[in-house]
Each structure stands twice: as C-alpha cells, then as structure tokens.
Task: structure prediction
Amino acid sequence: MRPLDYRDRLVDLLKNTPDVQRVEVLDSGPYPYALAATVAGREQRWQVIGQLADGAKHDTPTPPVTAGPPAFTAAPVTAAPDAWLAGAIGASEPADTERLEVWSAGGGKGGQGVTVFFHNGERAFIRLA
Result:
C-alpha cells in the first residue's frame, strides 16, 4: 500500500480508537507521510514508509488482495508504543493484511515501529519518529 494511502487509513483508524485524544496529519516537517497522535495524554509521531510488491511499478496500483485479518496481540496503552499500535491495527481486522511485526518485540536496537505485511506482497513500515 502506498505510504500516503496507509497514513490516511491510520488517521481514520486512530480517530476511532479508545485512549486516542487527537490525531493530526503532519504535512510539513522532516518526515514525509507522518502523523501525530495523542494517546493516553502522550504525543506519538509516526512516519509511514512503503515498499511495493515484487515487480510492481509506481505508475500502476497494486491490486488489493483480501484473505482475512492478521493474528495480533492486543497491548495496553501503557505498553511500548509500537506494540500498542500493532494491537490497534490488528483490532480493526484489516482483510488486506497478512501479518504485523512489532520491532521492539525483536529485542534488537532497530527502534520502535511496526511492519505491516499485505497479502498482495506490499509492505508498510510505520516507525516512531
């Protein structure tokens, strides 16, 4: 999924998520396709980066594939921000999403974020900015 499209989807999702007080698109600033969300009184800034499916081109949309929602683990708002975000995405039951990978759960020093793997081979990387 293209970063702009997924960022807009996240904005809509987060507006309807408990514990989220505010969601704002960040069109200016150092990170493209970014958003800010106030979650349980704390601001989180996220940037969406996309990766096309193998063989896909930017001038044509990748066809959507729906095959059922991903498995996910719900996390409380007090958990790591990326674990909470993955839980919020999973709870929305996106039929185009194959799986979610929480970066902080890997134990590495790759920062906090979520990789969204789509059934059509595309990926979205949502990193805490």
About this structure: The longest strand covers residues 42-51. The first helix runs from residue 3 to 15. DSSP finds two helices and six strands in the chain.
